[in-house]
Amino acid sequence: MIDIHVHILPGVDDGPRSQEEMILMAKQAVHNGITTVVATPHHRNGLYENPPETILQSLCETNTILQQQEIPLTILPGMEIRLYSDLINDLQKNQLIAFNQQNRHILVELPHDHVPIYMERFIFELRLVGYVPIIAHPERNIHIRTNPNLLYRFIEMGAMAQMTAASLTGDMGKNVQKSAWDMINHQLIQFIASDAHNVGKRGFILREAYEVIEHRLGREYVQHYKESTQNIIDGRDCLVLPPTKITKKFLGFFRPFT
User: Fold this and answer.
1) Which of these, 58, 137, 129, lies nearest to 87 by C-alpha position?
2) Terminal CA-to-CA distance of the chain, rounded, Å?
3) Nearest one of 232, 18, 95 to 8, comparing CA atoms
């Protein structure tokens, strides 16, 4: 399996603090059936600044350690970028890292409690210059959970979305879990990833999430998600299933959220 959202580089952000913790994470990933991960350190989120040279150097050192330890896990370059006004300019200046340096898809993090007012303009302008934004864990954003058809609008405009595996299994809480399944059932999610930070509560449970999806929706959904992750690291377009609006029950009838 491929996990496209992982914090595994030691001492870079709020992932492992040491090489020893990184090795434990790598072993857990392999035990979970994962062969490839994309390292996505936080960038411009108010706490961490991780320019490409910092990430790429740590990535090289970490892959070397894994080879020496004979741990069959490959780490590819990426970045979890907090949305900011000059993002597109910095991307075109090679000051940011797209998935596996393919210059196609980028992982974008929104603030926890709101969606910036310029989000639609950002998606439009990013698509104009040939990039596709992947919105990280929208089910954990308070504004989107309250107004889920914001995500529908973003997907319609050409963005995609990545869900945290723990959101589906209930480890992020019941409210997040409900929103997660609403989004899955309305085809608003294109990728599942662990967003692993350690071997504890923020560990690798990607296989468990896929098992739950297979049980509820069928093996073809799992295969679709897995193929999409492969396309991401190869820089290819992904099949996006037609999204539908999430509706709520009102006086006995189902009506769309506004």
Assistant:
1) 129
2) 37
3) 18
